[in-house]
Design a protein that fits this description.
Blueprint: H1 3-32, E1 38-42, E2 46-53, H2 67-90, H3 96-119, E3 122-130, E4 133-134, H4 140-158, H5 163-166
């Protein structure tokens, strides 16, 4: 198999796996819980709580839901997806961590975009807390986007490849 095709296959499989995991976990939570209902998984640390987030990642900017904000967030997500697709075209072969990371980010972005289009909000349910410390609820898509970005940043700082070894100078 040509290496350039392999790059896209790894990327697309990563995106598909995250999208599938995100969609199925959201569906399970929505069919088993009512809005704001919570189930303790690990007492004092992890709950599964159904929340509809009208803001961005981890509930930021969620006050005052509006159709204008939803349309803006859909547009921003669409632009982000376009940038991810452009980056995978620029990416040279042999950087599996970058291919997987970009796939994770794409799968997460599409998962949350589908929610915004369907519900005007994103379904969140992973509720972490410890004592008085409480992290805003999130979902598989948010986690995948976060991990994908962290890996890309990590690679940027600690990977010894030069820019010329990582990206194609003219992809078209």
């Amino acid at each position: 198999m040509k290496r350039s095709i392999k790059k896209y296959i790894i990327f697309l499989i990563s995106a598909f796996l995250i999208l599938t995991l995100d969609f199925s976990t959201k569906m399970i939570v929505q069919t088993r819980l009512r809005l704001y209902e919570s189930i303790s998984v690990f007492k004092g640390f992890l709950n599964i709580t159904l929340i509809k987030n009208t803001g961005v990642a981890f509930g930021l900017f969620s006050s005052n839901p509006s159709t204008v904000k939803t349309a803006f967030l859909i547009a921003i997500t669409t632009v982000s997806i376009s940038v991810i697709l452009y980056l995978i075209v620029l990416l040279k072969d042999g950087t599996a961590s970058s291919q997987i990371s970009l796939g994770m980010i794409l799968g997460g972005a599409i998962g949350n975009l589908i929610d915004r289009i369907r519900f005007g909000a994103v379904i969140d349910f992973i509720d972490l807390h410890y004592g008085n410390i409480h992290w805003p609820a999130f979902n598989v898509a948010d986690a995948a986007i976060t991990v994908g970005i962290i890996v890309i940043i990590w690679d940027g700082f600690f990977n010894k490849r030069s820019k010329e070894d990582t990206y194609v100078s003219n992809p078209f």
